Fold this protein.
Amino acid sequence: MRRAIVVVLDGLRRDFLTEATTPRLAAFMRRAAYFPRFRSAFPSATRIVSATFATGCFPARHTLQGNAVALMENGALVAHDVGRPDFLAHKRAVTGCSLAVPTLAERLADRGGAMVFNNVSPGAARAHDPDGFGYVYHRVFSSAPGLAEAENPLKVTLDAAGDRAMTERFIAEAVHGARPAFGLLWCGEPDHIQHNVPLGSPEHLAVVREADRHAGMVMDAVAEERARGDDVLLIVMSDHGHETVSGIVDVEAELVAAGLKDSAGSGDVVAMANGTATLIYLHPSREARREALGAYVRAAPWAGAVFGRAELGQVGHGAHNALAFAVAMRSDEEPNEFGVPGRSLAAKPRWDKADRLGCGQHGGLGVWEQAPVLLVEGSGFGAGERREDAARIVDLAPTILRHLGVAGDGMDGVALGTS
């Protein structure tokens, strides 16, 4: 039986993969294919990466633009936190679709099924199967096909202990039990700790070691299934890296001060913070403001790369819901207090969410937030092979489907490895 098992250690940047801190991952690298040029999506944030992973398509096609977005609703731009468990249902009601292209769960609904265990935000968990084709287990909700409430819901905490309990259930129920064609374990660590302590600190490294143990538990369980005769493609990865927050910028306040946004709560221009990126929406009635807005943002000292209407496709985006500019905040290679390189400005978040100076953040195009881990073991991938493919998040869904013998048509990504 052909199966695919994916383990995501959220937020792990690849320079933290070492013999001392991650011995199981280091050993796995010697028998798996390693992709040192693997990149995240943009914004490099978990909810958008989840949708991009699940569909094999960029945001221009699946239409989920970030961790926080604006939607055109009854002629107005309305700000939304994509992390809410009900956001994609709301998006479906407003726009006609939760995601505009099929997910892995939909493609595999009658081809062995999908089972997801997830300990990040509920909105990110929903993005893997928003329309209820498989099973999704999360600490806030647990759903079965048809979006029915699943029996034996997942009750864990958002920390290393919660990831350990979830990993144990994933192994019992997905790797060994129901044995779906596709099983996904998406751990909340080390991302959660990285938002709360400095990168490279003892507290951070202790949690990275726990994440390594959780990956090792799944490796051992997969080895047992292979011994029983299953042909398992095992992918161990992260969705993005982190950089140290060097400063926090209230982008909307900056736009108000520049005379380009009417007021703090106005809907003419809406800037949605996505960690070290921001998405700027321009109401169609204010189209005459586009040129001045673009000139100001491109010259702003807090902006790194700026993508206007003509350039959005370069980062996989389209102008859905009046998206006018996608901005990666300014970053540099300076080290933090523990010698960990990579700093970036962060956009001040809405809804009183914390952003901590000196701690980790992500979302933009900085070198280290765009340095996630990708290790693949199975048919078509050589042991200890170092692959220089410019691998992308969108390439994982077609890679999984090819292994399972299912067509991956209509995706932006291409299958990695050899058939």
